[in-house]
Each structure stands twice: as structure tokens, then as C-alpha cells.
Amino acid sequence: DQQVKQNSPSLSVQEGRISILNCDYTNSMFDYFLWYKKYPAEGPTFLISISSIKDKNEDGRFTVFLNKSAKHLSLHIVPSQPGDSAVYFCAAKGGSEKLVFGKGTKLTVNP
Amino acid sequence: GAVVSQHPSRVICKSGTSVKIECRSLDFQATTMFWYRQFPKQSLMLMATSNEGSKATYEQGVEKDKFLINHASLTLSTLTVTSAHPEDSSFYICSALSTNTEAFFGQGTRLTVV
User: Fold this and answer.
1) Are B46 and A42 within 8 A, CB to CB?
2) Å between B39 CA and nearest CA of chain A
3) pLDDT tens digit string along A61-72?
4) A49 near B102, Cβ under 8 Å?
5) B32-66 tens-digit pLDDT
6) CB distance A99–B110 less than 8 Å?
7) Comparing A46 with B16, which gets the higher pLDDT?
């Protein structure tokens, strides 16, 4: 049973436009959500997080939105840059320290 | 930000031999570290949770006698793949938990068993 779902395996956007990456979860016990960025053959790097007590967290070009009633979160990147091209993982945790990852979305930003 | 160093980044070994992968938190103490495995085009799968000074907790389906985890200090956890076989070839990633609930990842280790 996949508790964290990223239904779009890939996304392609034009440089300068907005990238929106989506993530859905099923476990209502999750109370902390994170986004990681991963380049090929490298470990994921932390990007941004949000606690369940918030519905929005912004850090520079990156904004994460959380809709608890819909069990949905999204990552917005504005404006998108070619260097943002990577695989983005959504992760969630609740109670224990274990992180549950989605399968990732490959973002390609075209110049 | 916090730094987690994983070594080696790439290793090729013969079938039947053992390989040790190290994961170090360089500027913070990590009582809890995690070991993940990533297959091509798949998500990161948690293999085990490593707790300093105690036995690791393995996820269902992960052979604890094959993937030996030792977390001897607050800054070092090791994963030893024993009697490696070609099907163990994968990308292994460690993660260390900092005090502010963020997990920082190592660079990953590409293991190829020939």
C-alpha cells in the first residue's frame, strides 16, 4: 500500500514558467512533509518542509502548499530554471521518525 | 546546513565478497540514521533504522544477516553487504536525523556486484 503518491512520473516546463509538483498521501497520522531534490547518482538533498499546522511555507523560489482535508501537497517553483531539472521526492512522517517517500517526479526545465 | 558523508561513492566487488559502506554525520550528532536502497526508476526504499548503541530495526523483507548495520558512535553508521550477489547491485543511500526533524542524506554508494 503506497502511502505517499506522486502520480506524475515526469513533468516538463519552460524556463521562467512555474513548475508544480503534486503529492498525495493516505495516512492521516502524517504531520510533517518534506520535499527532496535528487540528481542522478547523488543522494537526495533537502529542499523545503511543512508542518501539518501550516498550509503554506515559502523559501525563495520554492513554495510548498498543504491541503490537509484533501491529503494533498504541492511544490511550486517560480521561476523555473534549467538547474532545477532533477527528480523531486515527496516524503512524509508522523509519529515515528521513519520517512515514507513517494516514487518521485522527474522535472525537466527546458531553456 | 548539516553534512552527511557517505563512503565509498562507488564500489565494484566480486560475487561472494562483502562490502562495507560508511555514513558519517560531520557536524552534528545523529542518534538515528537510516539506510535506503534505490532501484532504477523506483523510489527510495527504507531498509533499516540504525540507532546508536542498539540493534538496527529492519524493514520487512530485508535480511538482517545479509545487510549488517553497526551504529557504534553518534556520528558513524556502517552498512555491510555480506556475501554480495549481482542482485544486490543497487544505489545505497544513508540518512541522518538532525535534532530539528530534518533528515540529511549522504551522497549515495553505487554498488556493482560482478
Assistant:
1) no
2) 11
3) 999 999 999 999
4) yes
5) 888 999 876 667 788 998 888 888 989 889 999 99
6) no
7) B16
Closest residue to A101, CB basis, from B44, B94, B102? B44
Count CA within 13 A, CB hemisphere, residue B11: 25
Q: How many CB pairs under 8 A join A and B?
A: 50
Which grid coordinates are listed for A79?
521561476
Does residue A97 surpass a pLDDT of 80? Answer: no
- Do residue B91 and residue A44 have CB atoms under 8 angstroms apart? no
CB B8 within 8 A of CB B20: no
Q: Is the pLDDT of residue B102 over 70?
A: no
Q: Show the beta-strand stretches assigned E in B4-108.
A: 4-7, 10-13, 19-25, 32-38, 44-51, 57-58, 67-73, 76-81, 90-97, 103-105
Question: CA nearest B49 in A: which residue?
Answer: A98
